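Troubleshooting log. The previous run stalled partway through. Resubmitting the same two chains, unchanged.
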Amino acid sequence: GAVVSQHPSWVICKSGTSVKIECRSLDFQATTMFWYRQFPKQSLMLMATSNEGSKATYEQGVEKDKFLINHASLTLSTLTVTSAHPEDSSFYICSAYLLHEQFFGPGTRLTVL
Amino acid sequence: EDKVVQSPLSLVVHEGDTVTLNCSYEVTNFRSLLWYKQEKKAPTFLFMLTSSGIEKKSGRLSSILDKKELFSILNITATQTGDSAVYLCAVERQGGSEKLVFGKGTKLTVNP
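Second attempt completed without errors. Output:
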């Protein structure tokens, strides 16, 4: 089956620093990947759609300058949380789209101190 | 605004019970409805429903869609403790956006 990995699986950082999260499709190519954020006891909220070779499309209310997305290849999308603050602490999940189905990565738990 | 509403938000049952989880939606240009199971990490896919009235079944789980009344149910029979999880309903729109709109989920706890 289609496998998506994320790295790191968890990260703790200090307020003001930047954190990069990688999302890889391991056995297929994905022109479209999605980034979600999930707060405790809440559902997945779509942050942005990442398209290979073009700019990401951000959902309303998501700051594109704070959450930088790069989709440089058909198997890799990265999300960089710039100048992270404690309110950015969350579970970040990516998915890769293939044949009308989204395959989810295992998620990255970000804690900003 | 697209909306997906799940009920109940949480449910506690005993092993062997049968449960029904509900998902209603209001989405422009509906394409499909999906059910996921989320334990501690990312959601795992259960079902994709596109047509009304056709039940999809996988072991003790089954699901059906009603496109006229805009809802779906997920049934789990003879529940086991391993069924404890958050069950998420999501709707995909037509038009090539491929985006999913998720409900808040139903947290199911199955006690031995």
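Takeaways: The radius of gyration of chain A is 13 Å. The interface with chain B takes residues 32, 34, 42-46, 49, 93, 97, 100-107 of chain A (CB under 8 Å).
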